[in-house]
Fold this sequence. Notes:
Elements: E1 5-19, E2 25-34, E3 37-46, H1 58-79, E4 91-96, E5 102-107
Antiparallel strand pairs: 1-2, 1-4, 2-3, 4-5
Amino acid sequence: MENNKVEIGVIKAVRFGAGGYDNVQFGLTVDLLVQGCCVNDFLGCWAGAPPENAQWTLADQTAHYGKICRRIHQLLTDAKVKDLASLVGRPVRVYTKPNGLLETWDILKEAVL
């Protein structure tokens, strides 16, 4: 993440369920508030079973759901909370690419009691 901009923000909202493109995907949506601007992060995949001509399988989808659950577990652990709702208001470190696009973000563990 060399040359990326790093800013401090907070989690404004968090949801698990329909999201992504046109709400036809399923996963974790997190809204981050950084310097008065809201940045949206979505980690998920298509909600339904793969159509016949898809280039992904049900096993691929299931593996991706596992990655989502691991991400949720890591966020809860880092924030020292037990559920997604408790993440709201937690401080985060946000990394953006030189073009301003979101690269990644994490819980600001230094600020967690």
